[in-house]
Amino acid sequence: MSATRITAINRRERSAQAELILLYGIFSLLLFGPVAFGAVEPWSIFVVEAGATVLFLLWIGKQVLDGTMKVRWNPLFLPMGVFGLLIVSQLVFRVTAYPHDTVSIALQYVAYGLLCFLAGQTLLRGAQARSLTLIFSVYGAAMAGFALLQGISSNGKLYWARQPRMGGWVYGPYVNHNHYAGLMEMLVPIPLILALTRLAPAKVRTAAAAAAAVMVGTIFLSGSRGGMLAIVVELVILAAFLIKQKRGLRTAIGIGVFMAIVIGLLVWIGGGELSRRIATAGPGHSELSSDIRSYINRDGFRMFLKKPVFGWGLGTFPVVYPEFRTFYTNFFVNEAHNDYLQLLIEMGLLGFATMVWFLVTVYVRAVKKIGNWAGEISGAMTLACLLGLSGILVHSAVDFNLQIPANAALFYVLCTVAAAEPFAKPARKRRAVRSRAPEEEMLPPPESLQQPATNF
Known about the structure:
Number of strands: 2
Shape: globular
Number of helices: 15
Structural class: mainly alpha
Strand content: under 5%
Helix content: 55-70%
Largest sheet: 2 strands, antiparallel
Order of helices and strands: HHEHHHHHHHHHHHHHE
Strand order of the largest sheet: 1-2
């Protein structure tokens, strides 16, 4: 074998290794965020931002190694770019009320953008999606198991060791139980959809259904009423898909077993406390936090009306809000408890319109890809993403999950996966045909079997 041939083979091997590091590096960062209290502290935010930057530099190095710059386009890149230009405009034209906070949060959005871009460049094949499905299913089940254990032996501290500086309702690795519920809303559909497909052996599907049941149970046990509403919406949407496909008796039995596990878990561990928590969500019941949220929403709307077009600046809500607050409290109000309202306040109608554009693009693209989701990994992964996104968008109307870096990063990457092109299908195995020169080496697969790319 010639030296040129050996060099080419070594280059391809190094490129494949870099691609593997990129793929699992991206999703490792997504799994790191929740474990690190939601990546809300400076050190964990730095890890996410620095990690995304290093992975992007590695991707550039891979392109140099391959000798060509291939960028796989995703329609979400356009609204993401426009949103970035709006943030830059706030800084350049001094629209923001506090440039330091705008720059700080903008760096987080840059990290989200890099992770989305890299996910779009590396998650291309069905085999990769299958591996990630199993990893996220195991991760979600392990996180739910930890939350259950902590729930029955909690001392009010994170990991039984660290006292939250500003208090909170600790559940799982999060200071705020609502944010744990938000994470689970995005993770639950992954094992749940896997259990309903034909993409895995029966034992794996059964284990996936059990994992999803435990994860759903912890959403209710966390006490997050927004999370309860969100998961119910997800299950209703899934039921609509199942009815549309006219799934048979086996699916009905499986769903019945799934719900029996969930209900049994809730009754066994939740008991009367869970019933009381659900009861307070009905009309005629109120609690201090609900009253405060209504005051914040009213005050926040006044803030929006003051600067309706460009907003007060990304990340400036906690700085500006005291000027508009109409109630007394000893607590520091750092978020609007409504992601839509906070987006209007900080980015104005222009930013809100850009986000609507972003979400409409996600749903339009995703619906076209779902197709035969029970038998195709592209459709199954897209449906799982769509359910998780729908849940968190419902929850965002009453909380601020998308202000938590770990949840926000996962949300935006799921959006990217949902809107991307379908995964490349593996080449069909063909019988080897004897040629006149049997010593001839096997040729690499043709370019037509690879994911389409834009060459620069």
